[in-house]
Design a protein that fits this description.
392 residues; alpha+beta; Heat Shock Protein 90; 3 domains; five-stranded mixed β-sheet; two-stranded antiparallel ribbon; 8 helices; 64% helix; rod-shaped
């Protein structure tokens, strides 16, 4: 035998609970009904018979006129009493029948009302609860959830459903981050091996090019410069390969972001460009790895300078509240198209002809290793704005 649905079980429970007061009232009424005194027809007939015999016996006695009048009055009163008692018994019987019918109608109406209310409540409670059970199963199967609850759902259950929706979104984001981190770890391991194999031949090649440059005739210098530039590019790529997927070394320590960013802004931005630094606090510190964070913001600044082609303005703002630290780096260059804003953090994607496509991938990986996030948007008036957030 299959188990009853939650809605049926809830309806039965509500019906039973609601019927208890009705049964108590009905029982009290029955007890009151049984205890009500009543005069049966047999008692009335017996009283009439004895009164008749008494009158007949008194008629044979010698009585005065006053005694006879009193006897006749008594007989008349007994007769009226019998008539009234008979009529009262009939009316009582009729009233009891009508009262029983009324009680039956009221009881039936109450039962129907209780059943209707129970059905309404069971449907009102069971439907959203069944929907929540369905949502949890969808979360287990990694299926999408409805974005909005049904309009007739109770506010408390709407809050629960929205919490489940937010939970699923958080799980999906955490799963995506974990998959991306795992992919980067696997890619980083391969990249480090490739970097190691690349560095071995690059060192003697660059050494040989420097020696040849001293002895080679002038007509060979152009070719040697090309070899030197390309070998330097390969060395940079090997270094980026080695950085990708590498965890920060050492023990985390407080890093003064204001000091770090002000120093980078002064040294990494050409003198011909405008620079501005703002902070709502002095000495905003972050528990992290100094060298890794320095590479992150140095890379972002270098990209901003290249995007502005050495002119324009670069602004860095640091904001701290109770929950997080925000670093906002803005430039007034050409900006980044919306369709490429997520792609720029993928390995091997580069908008520069000579780029390795690993710089921003390493930036995001390092920020995520510090439990932070990075996003890019438009700068008002033109340009790109990178928003980096860390937990405070």
């Amino acid at each position: 035998m299959s188990r009853l649905s939650f809605r049926i079980r809830l309806f039965i429970a509500l019906l039973v609970v609601s019927a208890v007061p009705l049964l108590m009232v009905a029982g009290a009424g029955a007890l009151f009904w049984v205890n009500q005194p009543s005069i049966s027809k047999a008692v009335i007939d017996s009283v009439g018979s004895t009164a008749k015999r008494l009158v007949q016996q008194q008629a044979n006695l010698q009585m005065t006129r006053d005694q006879q009048a009193a006897m006749l009055d008594h007989a008349a009163n007994v007769k009226r009493l019998m008539i009234d008692a008979t009529q009262t018994g009939a009316r009582a019987k009729t009233f009891r029948g009508q009262a029983a019918a009324a009680i039956a109608v009221v009881a039936g109406s109450l039962v129907l009302l209780i059943a209707g209310v129970g059905a309404l409540l069971s449907r009102q409670y069971a439907a959203p609860l069944n929907e929540i059970v369905d949502w949890t199963r969808r979360i287990q199967r990694h299926e999408p959830l409805p974005t909005e609850p049904k309009p007739d759902t109770m506010p408390e259950l709407i809050t629960l459903q929205r919490s489940l929706f937010e939970l699923q979104q958080g799980l999906e984001q955490a799963r995506a981050v974990e998959l991306e981190s795992e992919r980067l770890r696997a890619f980083g391991e391969v990249a480090r091996r490739v970097a190691h194999e690349m560095k071995n031949p690059l060192t003697p090649i660059r050494l040989a090019v420097r020696q040849l440059s001293r002895r080679a005739p002038a007509d060979m210098q152009v070719e040697l410069e090309v070899i030197a530039a390309e070998s330097a590019r390969l060395e940079t790529m090997a270094r980026d390969f080695a950085e990708l997927g590498r965890l920060p070394q050492g023990i985390a320590a407080p890093v003064d972001l204001c000091e770090l960013l002000e120093e980078l802004l002064q040294n990494a931005v050409p003198d011909g460009m405008q620079r501005e630094f703002r902070s709502n606090e002095v000495g905003v510190t972050l528990e992290g790895f100094y060298d890794a964070l320095r590479r992150v913001f140095s890379n972002l600044l270098r990209n901003a300078v290249e995007a502005c082609e050495g002119s324009g303005k670069i602004t860095i703002a640091v904001h701290r509240d109770q929950d997080r630290i925000e670093v906002i780096l803005s430039d007034n260059g050409p900006g980044i198209p919306a369709e490429k804003r997520e792609m720029i953090f993928q390995p091997y994607f580069s908008g520069k002809p000579d780029g390795t496509g690993l710089g921003l991938a390493i930036v995001r990986q390092t920020i995520e290793q510090h439990h932070g996030t990075i996003a890019v948007s438009d700068t008002p008036g033109g340009g790109a704005t990178f928003l980096v957030r860390f937990p405070a």
